Amino acid sequence: MGFYGTLKMIFYKMKRKLDHGSEVRSFSLGKKPCKGSEYTSTTGLVPCSATPTTFGDLRAANGQGQQRRRITSVQPPSGLQEWLKMFQSWSGPEKLLALDELIDSCEPTQVKHMMQVIEPQFQRDFISLLPKELALYVLSFLEPKDLLQAAQTCRYWRILAEDNLLWREKCKEDGIDEPLHVKRRKVLKPGFTHSPWKSAYIRQHRIDTNWRRGELKSPKVLKGHDDHVITCLQFCGNRIVSGSDDNTLKVWSAVTGKCLRTLVGHTGGVWSSQMRDNIIISGSTDRTLKVWNAETGECIHTLYGHTSTVRCMHLHEKRVVSGSRDATLRVWDIETGQCLHVLMGHVAAVRCVQYDGRRVVSGAYDFMVKVWDPETETCLHTLQGHTNRVYSLQFDGIHVVSGSLDTSIRVWDVETGNCIHTLTGHQSLTSGMELKDNILVSGNADSTVKIWDIKTGQCLQTLQGNLTCLNRDSGSGCVTSCGSIMNIGGLSSALFLRFLRIVIHYM
């Protein structure tokens, strides 16, 4: 048995003696905040000094030796040194037996004194004694709420609990894929740095809590495209981008509902768009794609190559894949504006596309879904089964989910090309879908939203309502569009609150 195991046995034996003695009183291990590490601008983090490992060290560190002499103010009894030497010569079990007998022969006040000497040994801040990497590894096993509480323990623990990479992992576990963007890293105090990932987690938690418990606020209605049709929507962070057949895009604040800027440059209606960070990409009936700076409204590149309307696109990191009514797909580098690859094989307009950085999946008016290797420009699988135009796709790297005008939704295995499930129940065109893990949410022109389990093919919920567009972002925001206006918050009735609660429950 180790040193601390022995101390623990002695401590609890003394506690039991006090509990059953003439002076019964409860004693517990106190939790005193550690002093933590000191921070200096020259040396950085300095861990707490090591906790003493012997009674001699303990008395030297805490002044217990002097305190004992002050309390007793008597000379050591004769024979004490000989008794200690004899004690040291005994085996471990013999020492424990001797201590048991010693405790049994002590008065309660003497036992209390021993407890006061032993108790500080249990108040050991082992986290501060570890290298920072190991300390962070230990803290990574805590739940986020426990991390926030740990940050209140001491200065050093707060520095550790604010670690950005630690919170990135917590966000990853909860499906939060973007940090909260700040213009510059905010310095709180010397040694403390603002964590964008922690802010993103807290913001997401507040949003989820508001959806579950808060009252539904009146939706903001955004008007700006006059009588023209809103053809596409993107939601990223606190910004919304709308494209219209009036040849423009508008950037809106999701917080205030105000139009921040209008992007002018296309000579035809805008029918597709993507947004990430400060980059917006748009596709138009003028057969071009444009890359925009969302902050300034500047057009960075105009991408030429398609011979008909650019009807769909999907952005992944620095590449965007566009699909056109010319039946082709093109892979572009958005930083250089260069066309990297052309994918040919469909025999009708390409209506939807998904790209995960490795595979491209496209759906077209030829009733087909195709899986491509963009680097070699080869079609790996042609997924046949739909009996009408394919309008919507979702792709998670393992499953392809396609929605068609034939009213069905099909789930495919991307590696084999086999159809796993055919989801039936909608009565019209499935125009929008969102997939997370095994849960699929589909929006249909029959004014219903259905929630499916793609592993079993089972429909879990059906919600009735006038929903024309479904767009989910990592912040659980939802935007719906109808005609020339948009609603932030969506359905203006109890249906929307029920819808969000049910979707969040499954997703």
UniProtKB/TrEMBL annotation:
Domain of life: Eukaryota
GO biological process: proteasome-mediated ubiquitin-dependent protein catabolic process; ubiquitin recycling
Record's keyword annotation contains Methyltransferase: no
InterPro entries in UniProt: F-box-like_dom_sf, F-box_dom, WD40/YVTN_repeat-like_dom_sf, WD40_PAC1, WD40_repeat_CS, WD40_repeat_dom_sf, WD40_rpt
Single GO molecular function: ubiquitin binding
Start and stop residues of the WD repeats: 237-262, 263-302, 303-342, 343-382, 383-422, 423-462
Region forming the signal peptide: none
Keywords, alphabetical: Repeat, WD repeat
Start and end residues of each F-box domain: 124-170
GO cellular component: cytoplasm; nucleus
PANTHER family: F-BOX_WD REPEAT-CONTAINING PROTEIN 7 (PTHR19849:SF1), PHOSPHOLIPASE A-2-ACTIVATING PROTEIN (PTHR19849)
Name of the protein in question: F-box domain-containing protein
